[in-house]
Specification:
The chain is of the alpha+beta class. It has 2 helices and 11 strands, in the order E-E-H-E-E-E-E-E-E-E-E-E-H. The strands form 3 sheets. It has a 5-stranded mixed sheet, with no helix packed on it. A hairpin with a 6-residue loop joins strand 10 (126-134) and strand 11. The longest helix is centred in the first third of the chain and has 22 residues, at 20-41.
Length: 176
């Protein structure tokens, strides 16, 4: 390693008669040592995936309170999808009663985009927001807005109405 500047690393490769496997091991060991030294010295920071600017959150523009809907979160670098992201995201909402997906770790098979089928249920009518934030990097977020309406009587089922339960106990008469 001959030159390390902020944002730039220069490694010198010296040909050797040793096998390529041993050469790769030396390079990896050198990189690990450099990363540890740079991190301790505070001259480098490390993240996961590529440094992306935002999360694009695909949601329907409107929904009904208490009805789940599907959300897709896509990591974006400028106008392109970040296909190598491997960090976790956390969901929040302006609706304090919302049911949200658990923290999620992007995987290689996601290729930068993951769909949470029926993953969000907003409970409060009005204009609500859903935000995805990369865990550990609070500035990397994305927010989407949904107009939530109260369910109509036709959309409610008996189980959603919280009707009192009827008793099935038999009535016994005392002998006269």
């Amino acid at each position: 390693m001959s030159n390390a500047k902020s944002g730039f690393v220069h490694l010198d490769a010296i040909p050797s008669s040793k096998s390529a496997r041993l050469g790769l091991g030396s390079v990896l060991a050198t990189l690990r040592l450099w990363a540890l030294t740079a991190a301790v010295a505070g001259s480098a920071t490390f993240g996961c995936g590529t440094p992306h600017a935002t999360f694009d959150i695909g949601v329907p523009s409107s929904g009904i309170a208490g009805s789940p809907f599907t959300v897709t979160v896509t990591a974006m670098v400028g106008e392109s999808r970040d296909t190598v992201i491997n960090c976790s995201i956390h969901f929040t909402s302006s609706d304090s009663a919302a049911v949200l997906p658990a923290d999620y770790l992007f995987t290689a098979t996601d290729a930068g985009s993951h769909t949470f089928t029926s993953g969000v249920t907003l409970m409060t009518a009005g204009n609500q927001s859903i935000t995805a934030t990369e865990i550990g990097v609070p500035g990397l977020t994305g927010t989407a807005y949904v107009t939530v309406s109260a369910p109509t009587a036709a959309q409610l089922t008996a189980s959603e109405l919280s009707l009192p339960k009827t008793s099935s106990a038999a009535v016994h008469r005392l002998p006269e």
